[in-house]
Specification:
This protein is an alpha/beta fold. The chain folds into 2 domains: about 5-225, Acetylglutamate kinase-like (Carbamate kinase); about 300-450, VC0802-like. Helix content is about 40%, strand content about 20%. The protein has an 8-stranded mixed sheet with strand order 3-4-2-1-7-9-10-8, sandwiched between helices. Strands 12-13-11-14-16-15 form a 6-stranded antiparallel sheet. A hairpin with a 3-residue loop joins strand 12 (about 340-345) and strand 13. The protein starts with a strand and ends with a helix.
């Protein structure tokens, strides 16, 4: 294991001079941070996506370029040595101009990746100079030399063994001598063509890089002070969680908590590299450690809320003491690629919720053909306007009285589909969407505020 840490800074953490200076202080304060992965400055990737989609009107295109130049120049203007960095930005903007013009004739996924990669290429020039001006021995490294991917532009898959070999050859030796500043989100295929890992891909980059250099720790600096017991906008007394296991964090993300998705951290966690999530704006508030093994495993860890549930209830007298009914149901669902989330059964009926596989955030729909086939087998009821509340914790069933505590707190609510038992880490149920926030508030008060 390398003795150093990888620190990743998100777009809002490098949004302007003040934000970037806070990052520099965080890096200075921890001498074991040797590798820094940066996102593009906040808002830049969105502007680049616009260019990549093709802006036909040259005036509109110029306006976007003005914005891009201003965002970056405004930071550089605080430097004592400005020329070198301005030239680096200008040269990227020049290349970008011809690519944006090409995209206005015909856009492609390959061109798009090259265009959107420019955000990280620019932000890292600036962050490096900012660090150098503070007397840190920082150098910029182009991660495309190491982060090898396939050529699936827009959502490229990393090629792990190549990344690991290249990191050993090119990156680890550099980190032993300097603080290395590099780009999140971007990579290159074996032709050397620029690729990206998909929007929001910097966390994933950071985890892949941490894995490749066998980092001692991975820090994810963002704009929230870690993971909270529940969304503080729902329950203002929610508090940050100091430590959470990877399985608990996965359950939370799965149930809609607005935290970084643990799947992006998998590369780090499969090598047992602990991950620390914190706010670069308020580092003094601490943050959350996500680890494979945690020291304390409290009964109740957090509450998550997910709206827009679709509940399907299937009823059939034929189910009575019969076998094969569920197999038939799931054959139909599988045939229509319907992914099921929760499930509860009784002797003559089964209720299930549909997985949120669409990215629109709308309630998932049961395909008409699937419904028709199910109706040949049983009575099908579909209900919307439901939300799912998930209580995340540890070994809840092993604790006497826990059910009483949870359910007495919720005695005023009409609970639907209670699920517990499959995972030792969660208990969940559905409530009417109008009541969902209140259910979370009441439960948070009972379980976390006393
Ligand atoms: N800059 C990229 C985006 O905004 C990647 C990232 O920030 O994670 O999607
Ligand atoms: Mg981002």
């Amino acid at each position: 294991m390398s003795a150093f840490n990888v620190a990743k800074f998100g777009g809002t953490s490098v949004a302007n001079f003040e934000a970037m200076s806070r990052c520099a202080t965080i890096i200075e304060n921890n001498p074991s941070t040797k590798l820094v992965v940066s996102s593009a400055c906040s808002g830049v990737t969105n502007l680049l996506v616009e260019l990549a989609l093709g802006v036909h009107n040259p005036n509109n295109r110029d306006a976007i370029f003005d914005d891009l130049r201003t965002i970056h120049y405004t930071i550089i203007e605080h430097f004592s040595e400005q020329e070198k960095t301005k030239q680096a930005i200008d040269s990227i903007l020049d290349t970008l101009k011809s690519m944006a013009e090409a995209a206005s004739f015909q856009s492609s996924d390959k061109l798009t990746d090259h265009i959107v990669a420019c955000g990280e290429l620019m932000s890292t020039h600036i962050l490096t100079q900012l660090m150098v001006e503070r007397g840190i021995d920082a150098i910029r490294f182009d991660i495309r030399e190491v982060l090898r991917t396939n050529a699936d532009y827009g959502k490229a898959e990393p090629i792990l063994d190549k990344i690991s070999t290249l990191a050993e050859q090119k990156l680890i030796p550099l980190c032993q001598q300097h603080v290395v500043i590099t780009q999140g989100f971007i990579g290159s295929d074996d032709q050397g063509t620029t690729t990206t890992l998909g929007r929001g891909g910097s966390d994933y980059s950071a985890a892949l890089i941490a894995e490749a250099v066998k980092a001692a720790g991975l820090e994810i600096w963002t704009d929230v002070p870690g993971i909270y017991t529940t969304d503080p906008r729902v329950a203002p007394k929610a508090t940050p969680i100091p430590e959470i296991s990877f399985s608990e964090a996965s359950e939370m993300a799965n149930f809609g908590a607005k935290i970084l998705h643990p799947s992006t951290l998998l590369p780090a966690l499969r090598h047992q590299i602990p991950v620390f999530v914190s706010s670069s704006r308020e580092p003094e508030k601490g943050g959350t450690w996500i680890r494979q093994q945690v020291e304390s495993a409290p009964l109740y860890r957090a509450l998550a809320l997910r709206g827009n549930q679709t509940m399907v209830t299937l009823r059939s007298p034929n189910m009575f003491q019969a076998y094969g009914f569920l197999a038939q149901v799931f054959t139909i669902l599988a045939k229509h690629q319907v992914s099921v989330d929760l499930i509860t059964t009784s002797e003559v009926s089964v209720s299930l919720t549909l997985d949120q596989t669409n990215t629109s955030g709308k309630a998932p729909e049961l395909p008409v053909e699937a419904r028709a086939e199910l109706e040949e087998l049983c009575i099908v009821d579909i209900e919307h306007n439901l939300s799912l509340v998930a209580l995340i914790g540890n070994k809840m069933s092993a604790k006497k009285g826990y059910a009483k505590q949870v359910f007495s707190a919720l005695e005023d609510f009409n609970l639907r589909m209670i699920c517990y038992g499959a995972s030792p880490h969660n208990l969940c149920f559905l409530v009417n969407s109008e009541e969902a926030k209140r259910a979370v508030q009441v439960l948070h008060q009972e379980l976390f505020e006393k």
